[in-house]
Specification:
Number of strands: 0
Structural class: mainly alpha
Shape: globular
Order of helices and strands: HHHHHHHHH
Largest sheet: none
Helix content: over 70%
Mean pLDDT: 80
Low-confidence stretches: 60-82
Number of helices: 9
Strand content: under 5%
Distance between the termini: 22 Å
Amino acid sequence: MDQIITSLSQSLNLPEAAVRTGVGLILNFVKQKAAGTQFDTLIGLLPGAAELTASVPAEGGGAGGALGGLLAKAGGLLGGNLGGAAEVIGALQGAGIPLDKAAPLASEFFEQAKSVAGPDAVDAVIKQIPALASLLTNK
């Protein structure tokens, strides 16, 4: 994970600490939404991922978290995938990831995860979470 975190930090021009927290939040979101065995398989293939998810709270805080909560409620009322994607974006903002870098962080993380864990393991998890798939296509 350290190599992925460093690479994301450099490519997105973000502090490593923020990227580490952001990736942990993304993984925790996936853990909450994906079926257990496919998530467990993915985490097992990404060295350091289990430790990262354990060290980062499942939800973000701060103003970004509040905004994400409001957007999630609005998305739920509209019946779309906005709610789940907004949860992730709000949590990332709370962790110090600017709004314009939230989707690129998620997208680049999953692309790099594919090179380590393999595309099948990553795609199997992403397909289970429509909100995540919509976030990745709206980068």
